[in-house]
Amino acid sequence: MGGRSSKKTFTEWDLIKYSNMTNIPLPTVENIYKDFITATGNTNKMDKNEFRRLYKQMYMNCQYGNTPAPFLNDHDIEKMSDHVFEIYDYDGSGKLTFEEFAEIYLMLNHYAGTTPDGLTRRDRFNYILDQYDTTPEFITCERGQQIFNYLNRYNNWPNLNMATSNNDSSKPVINNWEYHWNKLDDGTGRVEKDKFLDYITKSNDYKRYFDPKLI
């Protein structure tokens, strides 16, 4: 998740499932990808302007049944897309791959919570992990570090001086990835994926990212 470690190109993802999770028709998803490849000359790199364009295109094609996406003006969409672009641009290169874009759009889906077909944010997160990991039943220490650091960055915790947990306003949120990893690792250097998912979707420090009641 995030970074440059995807093992699959977008065409190798389960695009039917991706379409269902984002509520964007499959032909639209496929055409957006084809247009991107044509526009970038097969480099698979987009800058912030291209990211804005694709983000808006995806958003405007998202719908539940016959219900279109809630209205956002161009300024709001650009502000949102610029923010998430900077979160994912880990190396400061000003470039992202299409796979990173697809991941961003899926995880920052504008319809929080559970979709009409019962999919949750946890389901979407699990789907993304499956696109990146070569050991599908486990999360390695390296992957755990990447994921924890991504979530910290998403929540902007490095810039918060007095961040607190949800249950105790006097208790600082701990954003050191090793602290959380050591609570899960039994010494083997890897953690069962279900155990890892349970922790980051239910612990006080991370559940805000997944629980729509807290967003």
From TrEMBL:
<dbReference type="InterPro" id="IPR018247">
    <property type="entry name" value="EF_Hand_1_Ca_BS"/>
</dbReference>
<dbReference type="GO" id="GO:0005509">
    <property type="term" value="F:calcium ion binding"/>
</dbReference>
<feature type="domain" description="EF-hand">
    <location>
        <begin position="76"/>
        <end position="111"/>
    </location>
</feature>
<dbReference type="InterPro" id="IPR011992">
    <property type="entry name" value="EF-hand-dom_pair"/>
</dbReference>
<protein>
    <recommendedName>
        <fullName>EF-hand domain-containing protein</fullName>
    </recommendedName>
</protein>
<dbReference type="InterPro" id="IPR002048">
    <property type="entry name" value="EF_hand_dom"/>
</dbReference>
<keyword id="KW-0106">Calcium</keyword>
